């Protein structure tokens, strides 16, 4: 059963913050699907650390700046965006609403933010391109290199503006909530970019069909040499997602990528990895302006976006909150969440004395011990 199929429509006007959308969506989503969405790996230490780090960070506002107007517009990778936000690659979005990725792509297009099409999308990229927004396409490294090339050519033909290469999944993290439930995709939800290549839905007790699928298709031997091969086989700018180590960030920059995403996969890979926010300042310091730095994992509000940019990021990728909106009302629900995020960021910028995203990067930040945060 899809969320919303047996419950009355939600009054979106009653939801006044992105954070509130989580609680509303939980009651409209099957328990196994909800666990799949909100859970992390292992004991979920890193999942919790993402929020702890963001909550602990303070931003020092500026006053008497003389600003009466603000603009949230910015450039992300090689394109324009109406705010420093892109929709993160999220697998199997039809789990949350029958319209799935189409609803999200349409809402992102209206909001003027890039939409990253997941390799594990349950809707073909060509249908999403017809929505008219800015599309990026996500790749994991596949054992079948000919299929990789086919997907790259399809992304180029569909008008995708960047390739986002997720590099943090040599194996899927042990997501215990899914394992306990033996989480299996419903019959009408599949990774359409794999054609008929699907993992069996008949899994042993304690297994996960998604873990089985990724183990079958993904190549754990992915290396820097493979990234160089990919760069030589596409005209699209590359975004490397899943960087936490400063040396890896430098090596990605040396490989000529357009951007990196500082990410611990939303706490779903190595449990015990640092929060994205904690490593962001060092990564920003290690790179010059030729490489944009984006961040995901734990972003839940406009204030969180402000904090990420104050630490030096150029933008954020928004993941789970998009699915909250999708579960609440399809395209309208996603549009509402993105509108709330825009309004929250605009208000935070006003209160911090910032007129545009670049000025946010000049703010000072403080840790709980009142030590200068980030690069300040």
Structure in words:
The chain has 376 residues and is of the alpha/beta class. The chain has one domain: Aldolase class I (TIM Barrel, Alpha-Beta Barrel). The chain contains 14 helices and 13 strands. The chain has an eight-stranded parallel beta sheet. Helix 1 packs antiparallel against helix 13, helix 10 packs across helix 11 and helix 12 crosses helix 13. It is globular, with a radius of gyration of 20 Å. The termini are far apart. The C terminus is likely disordered.
Task: Note the main attributes of this structure.
376 residues, alpha/beta, three-stranded antiparallel beta sheet, 40% helix
For the largest sheet, list the strands in their spatial order: 4-11-10-9-8-7-6-5
Spans of at least 5 consecutive residues with low confidence:
197-207, 370-376
CATH architecture: Alpha-Beta Barrel
Through-space gap between termini: 50 Å
Tally of individual helices: 14
Oligomer state of the chains in this structure: single chain
Mean pLDDT: 92
């Amino acid at each position: 059963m899809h969320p919303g199929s047996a419950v009355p429509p939600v009054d979106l006007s009653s939801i006044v913050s992105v954070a509130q959308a989580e609680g509303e969506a939980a009651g409209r989503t099957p328990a196994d699907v909800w666990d799949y969405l909100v859970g992390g790996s292992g004991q979920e230490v890193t999942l919790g650390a993402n929020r702890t780090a963001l909550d602990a960070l303070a931003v020092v506002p500026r006053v008497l700046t003389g600003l009466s107007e603000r603009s949230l517009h910015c450039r992300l990778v090689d394109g324009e965006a109406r705010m420093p936000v892109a929709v993160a690659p999220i697998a199997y979005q039809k789990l949350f609403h029958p319209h799935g990725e189409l609803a999200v792509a349409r809402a992102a297009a209206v909001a003027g933010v890039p939409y990253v099409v997941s390799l594990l999308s349950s809707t073909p990229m060509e249908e999403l391109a017809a929505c008219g927004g800015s599309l990026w396409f996500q790749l994991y490294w596949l054992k079948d290199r000919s299929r990789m090339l086919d997907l790259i050519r399809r992304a180029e033909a569909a008008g995708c503006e960047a390739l986002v290469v997720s590099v943090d999944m040599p194996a899927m993290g042990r997501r215990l909530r899914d394992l306990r439930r033996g989480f299996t995709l419903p019959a009408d939800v599949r990774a359409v970019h794999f054609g008929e290549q699907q993992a069996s839905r008949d899994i042993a007790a304690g297994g996960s069909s998604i873990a089985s699928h990724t183990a079958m298709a993904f190549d754990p031997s992915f290396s820097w040499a493979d990234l160089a091969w990919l760069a030589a086989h596409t005209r699209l700018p590359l975004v490397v997602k899943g960087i936490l180590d400063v040396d890896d960030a430098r090596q990605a920059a040396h490989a000529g990528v357009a951007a990196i995403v500082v990410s611990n996969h939303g706490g779903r890979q190595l449990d015990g990895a640092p929060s994205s926010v904690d490593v962001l300042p060092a990564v920003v310091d290690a790179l010059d302006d030729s490489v944009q730095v984006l961040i995901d994992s734990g972003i839940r509000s406009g204030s969180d976006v402000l904090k990420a940019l104050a630490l030096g990021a150029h933008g954020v990728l928004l993941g789970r909150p998009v699915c909250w909106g999708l579960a609440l009302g399809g395209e309208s629900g996603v549009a509402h969440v993105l509108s709330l995020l825009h309004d929250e960021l605009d208000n935070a910028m006003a209160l911090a004395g910032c007129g545009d995203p670049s000025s946010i990067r000049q703010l000072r930040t403080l840790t709980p011990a009142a030590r200068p945060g980030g690069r300040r």
